[in-house]
Amino acid sequence: MTTFPRGRGIKAAALLASLGLLLSACSGDGGGGGSDLTAPGPDVLDGLDEAVQVEFWHSMDATNGQVLDELIEGFNAENEGRVEVTGSFQGDYDTALAGHRAAIQQGETAELIMIYDLGTQFMIDSGQTVPAQSFLDEDDYDTSTVEEALLNYFTVEGELRSFPFNNSTPLMYVNRDAFEEAGLDPDSPPTDLEEIRAAAEELTVTDDDGTVVQYGFGAAVYGWFIEQFMARAAVPYCDGANGRDGRATEVLFDDPKVIELVEWWDQMIEDDLAVQIGRNTDDGQAAFTSGRAAMTLESTGSLGGFIEQSDFEVGAGYFPLVGPDDPGGSIIGGASLWVNGEGHSPEEVRGSWEFVRYLLTPEAQSVWHAGTGYLAVNTEGYDGPEAQERAEESPQFSVAASQLADSEINENTAGCMMGVMSEARVAAEEGWEAALTSDATAEEAMSEAARGVSGTIDEYNESVED
C-alpha cells in the first residue's frame, strides 16, 4: 500500500529545541513570520548567466515521490538555463520539520520546503519565509480556481502564508460487498454516529462459536479525526477563534461533542460492533482491507491503496457527523510549500515561486491528483486528461472534492493555529485511548488530556512574545 507520511507528534526534546530556536529566530520580530520579506518581481530572472538553483526539501517517497520527480523534470525542461529545481527527500513530516529547524540555526535552509499543516504556526513564528500573499500581490495572481477550503486553512490574519499542495481530507470508507450482503445500500453510507451504529449491527458477522469475524466498524484512534469531528460540528479546537484572532491559550477537545464521540466509540467496542485498533493508522487500514472491519475512517490519500489491496469493492462517503444536525465542514490535512527568504537571493526566491506556480497549474495538478490521490489544489486540474481517466476508473475519487466543495468555510474549518498543534494532537489521542482502555470516563480522560497541553502552550507562547 502506498504510504502517505503524516505527523505523529514531535518528541519533548525536539519541542524544547524548537522553543530555543524561536527565541533566537524571532528576536525583535514578534513572531511576524517574515513580515519584512517580500517577493521580487520576474525581472530578477532576466539576463542570467546560468540557471538559478532551487533546492526543494519534501517528504514524498515511493509512488508520490516518483510523481513529484516527474513534475520537477517537466519544470526543469521548460525552464532550462533559467531555473533548475533539485528535489531532496527529507523523511516524514516530523523529520523534515526537525531538519528545517536545524537548518535555520545553521543558516543553511533550502530555498523551498514542504511543511505539514501542524507546522504552520511554527513556520510563521520562525520569521524565515516570504509570505505567499506577497507573491500573489506582486504578480496579481488569480486564486479563484484554487480550492477555497485550502486557502482558508493557510490564510492567517487575512493573508495567505504558504501554498497548499499535497493536501487531503478524510472520508468514510465502506466494504461495498459486505453492505450488499447485509441488505444495505453502499451508495448511501452512514452520515453520523447513530447511522454508523445501525449499519454496524447489520454488518457485524459472527461464526458458529460466537466469535466476531467481521466487525461493522473499525478505525484508528487518530487525533486528526477528532479535529474533523469538531470542525463538522462547528466546534473550535482551541480558543482565540481557533487561534485566528489571537494566540491560542488552551485546547478545547474536552468539548461535549468530543465526549459524546468517545463514549460512542467505547460503547461500540464493548458491544462487539467495532474492533479495537489503537493509535496505529496502519493497523486501522489493515483491518479494513482484510475485511475485518466493514467501515472505516481514513484520508483520501489511502483510497488508491485501499482499492489495490482489498479483495472487495471499496466505496467512499463523506466523513461522518457526530449528530445529524451538525452543520458539516472539513479540515484538510497534508502539507504546504514555503519559500525561504532569509539568507536567499532575490533570484532564488523568484525561482522558487516560478516552480510553485508551475505546480499549481491545471496541467500539473491533473498529473499530481491522478498519480497520488491527493486533492487537486487547482480545481481545474480535475478536468485534465489524467484526472479524468482516474475518475472513470475510480469514481470514489470524486467524493473528496465534493465534500470540500460542500464544506462550511469558517474559523472552525480553518483549523486551530497553534505552535504546538503536534503535541496537542498526540495528547488528544492519549486521552481518547485512555477512555477506551482504562477505568477513566470519556469526560475525565479528555479533560485531563486538555489540561496536560496547557503548560506546553504557555511555554511556546512565552518563547515568541515580544
Describe the protein in words.
By secondary structure, this protein is an alpha+beta fold. It folds into two domains: 12-167 and 334-383, D-Maltodextrin-Binding Protein, domain 2 (3-Layer(aba) Sandwich), CATH 3.40.190.10; 170-329 and 414-453, D-Maltodextrin-Binding Protein, domain 2 (3-Layer(aba) Sandwich), CATH 3.40.190. The protein has helices at 12-25, 62-78, 93-106, 120-126, 132-139, 148-154, 176-181, 193-203, 223-232, 239-243, 256-270, 281-289, 303-309, 346-359, 362-372, 385-393, 397-405, 411-414, 421-437, 442-463, and strands spanning 52-58, 83-89, 112-116, 129-130, 155-156, 159-160, 163-168, 170-175, 205-206, 212-214, 295-299, 314-318, 333-340. The strands form four sheets. Strands 1, 2, 3, 4, 7 and 13 form a six-stranded mixed beta sheet that branches. The longest helix has 22 residues, at 442-463. The radius of gyration is 22 Å and the shape is globular.
What's this, in brief?
The chain is of the alpha+beta class and 466 residues long. The protein has helices spanning 12-25, 62-78, 93-106, 120-126, 132-139, 148-154, 176-181, 193-203, 223-232, 239-243, 256-270, 281-289, 303-309, 346-359, 362-372, 385-393, 397-405, 411-414, 421-437, 442-463, and strands at 52-58, 83-89, 112-116, 129-130, 155-156, 159-160, 163-168, 170-175, 205-206, 212-214, 295-299, 314-318, 333-340.
Low-confidence stretches: 1-35
Task: Output the CATH class name of the largest domain.
Answer: Alpha Beta
- Secondary-structure-based class equals alpha+beta
Q: Going by CATH, what is the homologous superfamily of the largest domain?
A: Periplasmic binding protein-like II
Task: Please count the beta strands (DSSP E, at least 2 residues each).
Answer: 13
What level of helicity do the residues show? 40-55%
**N/C terminus separation:** 47 Å
Q: What is the CATH architecture assignment of the largest domain?
A: 3-Layer(aba) Sandwich
Q: What is the CA-based Rg, rounded?
A: 22 Å
Structural domain count = 2
